Amino acid sequence: MTHYDLVIIGTGSGNTILDQRFADWRVAIVEKGIFGGTCLNVGCIPTKMFVYPADIAQAISTSEPLGVDAELREIRWHEVRDRIFGRIDPIASGGKDYRAAHPDNANVTLYDGTARFTGERTLQVAPSDGGTPESLTADRIVLAAGSRPIIPDLVADADVEYHTSDTVMRIDKLPSSVTILGSGYIAAEFAHVFSAFGADVTVVARSNALLRAHDLDVSTRFTELAAKRWDVRTQRTLVGARRTTEGTTLDLRTKDDRNESITSELLLIAVGRTPNADLLDAEAGGIATIDGRINVDEYQRTSVNGVYALGDVSSQYQLKHVANHEARVVRHNLLHPDDPVASDHRFVPQAVFTSPQIASVGLTEQQARSRRLRFVTATQDYGGIAYGWAMEDTTGFVKLLADPESGQLLGAHIIGPQAPTVIQPLIQAMSFGLDAPSMARGQYWIHPAMPEVVENALLQLELD
Ligand SMILES: Cc1cc2nc3c(=O)[nH]c(=O)nc-3n(C[C@H](O)[C@H](O)[C@H](O)COP(=O)(O)OP(=O)(O)OC[C@H]3O[C@@H](n4cnc5c(N)ncnc54)[C@H](O)[C@@H]3O)c2cc1C
Ligand SMILES: NC(=O)c1ccc[n+]([C@@H]2O[C@H](COP(=O)([O-])OP(=O)(O)OC[C@H]3O[C@@H](n4cnc5c(N)ncnc54)[C@H](O)[C@@H]3O)[C@@H](O)[C@H]2O)c1
Question: What are the protein's UniProt keywords (predicted)?
């Protein structure tokens, strides 16, 4: 049994905790997979590195209304893929080497294996190479074990080949057709990538809209646009999956009880991610869970003294900027347990890097209504501002919700070019309590730049 001052499980945002202030601590890091976690290796970063060339490919094939006749000749898949992972893989291995061997980390032991609780602040680590499990105890433990893709039993139990976001970015050949089961973030982003690269894409949704957790106006607009680009099947229930000569077939039932089948070369499952709390045997460590997540208070503390959790394993937001924020909170609270800081989840923004891009922060109109809040809304089309004319945009808009009495913004929802960038001043205004009139008229807005779409939306809010 080896004892540590601190054990960190998971090297995504968990790996960002350690700095020189921990130099006197005896620390262990346990990682069962690729060093660096989801965002770096199979999540945010490689997906966006695929989205960028996809955006270029799509711009070429949609440039004709601007008077530019261009032709997309070829996607050199191997080059696209290898540029991305040629950049990412060395970062993962370099990060691992740094923790394992650099003098800065003389106090750190890296375990390549799976940790699970066997008692309070007591862990067993099963080495990835099948070696003898080792027991560790620690005064403090950080659970940063992330989440993993959910695979419906009907797919997992069938004799079919399928991909998840963990595997699909490394495939050897660009498929001619792709079926995506699911209609959230991952479905929207990969549908854009594969269709921009020339594949026929079918998206299968259980509900009546894609991205249905978004503001209804955004979700409705996105679903309409998606249906023009992809074969979108809403309100379908999966009833089976089978291998056929042409690829993989999904058997579906429609809302009006008809049977239908979709066959494609590649099947991508994107129906959500489940926290890895179960892999940790959290209950054996006395750690409470809620809906499969590790339960934490505002200080990221679990039900066991000295044990903290952060990121996808405990958060209702499965987002990297949230995991990183929570890691900073955990770092402070490890160093200053008597003067802890709380996580700030008031205005968590999110963006979907599909086409058109989507970004949002704060309440949706549905949420404002269900909370019975008094609010006003304003919507400004990109097409009504000068930069929108330049782009000939006809589909993007900014929608704002505000408290009519105080002028404080309650929510912002954008669908359109560069939405994740255009939204940032609104996140800032909400985070620092800047009211809409002050934001609109208390600063210059560069003319004729894209953020004028935000300025005009702010000016349209009919406040008291
Ligand atoms: C395809 C995709 C695209 C995404 N794009 C974005 C985006 O654009 N923006 C954004 O904000 N978010 C995005 N996300 C979400 C983001 O990647 C996650 O929210 C974030 O990576 C979570 O970080 P984490 O540190 O909690 O977990 P992770 O980074 O998943 O790290 C957890 C680590 O723990 C290890 N582990 C698990 N169990 C054990 C165990 N028992 N013992 C030892 N090790 C263990 C795992 O191997 C893993 O390396 C995306 C996710 C996916 C899948
Ligand atoms: N840009 C980003 O920030 C980004 C990108 C990708 C992933 N992520 C994170 O990763 C998480 C997981 O992404 P995701 O797209 O897998 O999940 P998601 O929760 O965004 O969407 C899953 C969708 O699949 C649907 N679904 C569930 N079971 C189904 C079934 N049997 N048949 C058909 N549809 C079904 C759900 O109704 C839901 O709409 C996201 O919630 C997000 O937090 C973020």
Answer: Disulfide bond, FAD, Flavoprotein, NAD, Oxidoreductase, Redox-active center
Q: How far apart are CA 435 and CA 458, in angstroms?
A: 10
Domains present along the chain, CATH in parentheses? 2-148+274-335 (3.50.50.60), 153-271 (3.50.50.60), 356-460 (3.30.390.30)
Query: pLDDT tens, 75-122?
Result: 999 999 999 999 999 999 999 999 999 999 999 999 999 999 999 999
345 catalytically annotated: no
Task: List beta partners, residue 163.
Answer: 268
Ligand 1 atom having least distance to the Cα of 34: 49
Q: Is 306 in the pocket of ligand 2 (CB under 6 A)?
A: no
Q: How many residues are recorded in the chain?
A: 464
Report ipTM (2 d.p.). Answer: 0.98
Rounded Cα distance, 159 and 241, in Å: 8
Q: Residue 126 pairs with which residues in a beta bridge?
A: 114
Report pTM: 0.98
Question: Rounded to the nearest whole angstrom, what is the distance from the C-alpha of residue 427 to the centroid of ligand 2?
Answer: 23
Atom of ligand 2 nearest to the CA of 353: 1
Distance 347 CA to ligand 2 centre (A): 21
